[in-house]
Amino acid sequence: QKEVEQDPGPLSVPEGAIVSLNCTYSNSAFQYFMWYRQYSRKGPELLMYTYSSGNKEDGRFTAQVDKSSKYISLFIRDSQPSDSATYLCAASYSGAGSYQLTFGKGTKLSVIP
Amino acid sequence: NAGVTQTPKFRVLKTGQSMTLLCAQDMNHEYMYWYRQDPGMGLRLIHYSVGEGTTAKGEVPDGYNVSRLKKQNFLLGLESAAPSQTSVYFCAISGAYSNQPQHFGDGTRLSIL
């Protein structure tokens, strides 16, 4: 079992919808959680970076971590066609080896105008 | 992308040929990483480096070698290319402090016939 699981989708939503992207993880030692956005033929781009449980908001994006259920979420409000991309969640430990990330396989999102 | 430049962007090789992929950064970050990304497999770490002159194996190191002779450059070598190494290769960098997020280049698409 991979340490970070992510539904690959694809997920298709109409413009303006609220999008919910989710990951689960199995390793309780993970303390740091990230969301990356990857456009076609481009490298992953860091979107959100959070520590431990709680919410973090940045514009239309909200990252949520629930360590009790080992659940990571990314919400996109008022989705736009430019949000169409693959979204990758990632997690890392604290301390030794903390520079190594464990990625989910990514969810492909399409926002239809 | 965040000061990470990968060359070449695209290459086709024949089985058994060798080549070197170059990753160059202008961020003065300590840590550098090589990943491969395959459909359905997500991002997998090949090798990484925590500083000039140091390298270490990641999740899928077989068939690859790396060198970090200068802090700003991280080279990935394929000594005898195999069709199974057809992939998109990404380089990433991060700071030396614990749990710094990784920033990626735009990748090298490698096809081995």
Describe the structure.
Chain A has 113 residues and is an all-beta fold. Helices cover 0% and strands 54% of the residues of chain A. Chain A is built from no helices and 11 strands. Chain A has strands spanning 4-6, 11-14, 19-25, 32-38, 45-51, 54-58, 61-66, 71-76, 85-92, 102-103, 107-112. In chain A, the strands form 2 sheets. In chain A, strands 2, 4, 5, 9, 10 and 11 form a 6-stranded mixed β-sheet that branches. In chain A, strands 1-3-8-7-6 form a 5-stranded antiparallel β-sheet, with no helix packed on it. Chain B is mostly beta strands and 113 residues long. Chain B is globular and about 40 Å long. Chain B is 0% helix and 55% strand. Chain B starts with a strand and ends with a strand. Chain B contains no helices and 11 strands. In chain B, the strands form 2 sheets. In chain B, strands 2, 4, 5, 6, 9, 10 and 11 form a 7-stranded mixed β-sheet that branches. In chain B, strands 1-3-8-7 form a 4-stranded antiparallel β-sheet, with no helix packed on it. The chains are: A mainly beta (113), B mainly beta (113). At the A-B interface, strand 4 and strand 5 of A face strand 5 and strand 10 of B.
